[in-house]
């Protein structure tokens, strides 16, 4: 997952708050998390209260009623892992068994029966969501890792960072030409890592059906780097 730097700071009193969410209309079933730059003062709500109110709004907008629960289980941690970073923390989603199951179920419902034989997970949090999706749809899981993490022969693809470059790697022979794949990660920010994963798979003849993330930071325009590959997301966040 990519770190996002901002010149703005937000202080929360412990315990970390559950932020109120507002629904937006998308062609995808997503909802938007509030911006830390909003001039509106934040009010604290219990998860249950947020979920009930958001579910009603979701039904009115024709959206999946499970998504507000998913969104309300994700928290934003300011100044982590360094000052200015607004960290999208999905560990609280993983602690909520209902929200975690709903997240996996939504992806499974979307991709089951679509002839997908490869679920490629981007290090590191793509390894959390990818394997259960792969098992449920009858596909193999292919880890896409940082350099020198995979034993044996690998194929790699370089991508640009703010300062310098990095690589993403995959085992040689993990996929076959003509296979249909989805690429899974927890979040898309600038889109550099996902774009590299797309290029790497396409180099060996794999068809990219779609990229799928739990969270998108639309202000960073990461989807513009994905070329013709579609992007499916559940939650959008202004915390960038």
Automatic annotation (TrEMBL):
- Cytoplasm in keyword set: yes
Gene Ontology cellular-component terms listed: cytosol
The record's note on quaternary structure and interaction partners says:
Homodimer.
EC numbers for this chain:
2.4.2.7
- Annotated Gene3D superfamilies: 3.40.50.2020
Residue runs in coiled coils = none
In the record, the note on similarity to other proteins reads: Belongs to the purine/pyrimidine phosphoribosyltransferase family.
Q: Which GO terms describe its molecular function?
A: adenine phosphoribosyltransferase activity
Q: Phosphoribosyltransferase domain: from which residue to which, for each copy?
A: 110-221
Which reactions is this enzyme annotated as catalysing? AMP + diphosphate = 5-phospho-alpha-D-ribose 1-diphosphate + adenine
Ordered alphabetically, the record's keywords are: Cytoplasm, Glycosyltransferase, Purine salvage, Transferase
**Recorded superkingdom:** Eukaryota
List the InterPro entries hit by this protein, alphabetically.
Ade_phspho_trans, Adenine_PRTase, PRTase-like, PRTase_dom
Is Glycosyltransferase included in the keywords of this UniProt record? yes
Q: What EC class is this?
A: transferase
Protein name (database record): adenine phosphoribosyltransferase
Protein's pathway? Purine metabolism; AMP biosynthesis via salvage pathway; AMP from adenine: step 1/1
Query: Where does this polypeptide localize?
Result: Cytoplasm
Q: Which GO terms describe its biological process?
A: adenine salvage; purine ribonucleoside salvage
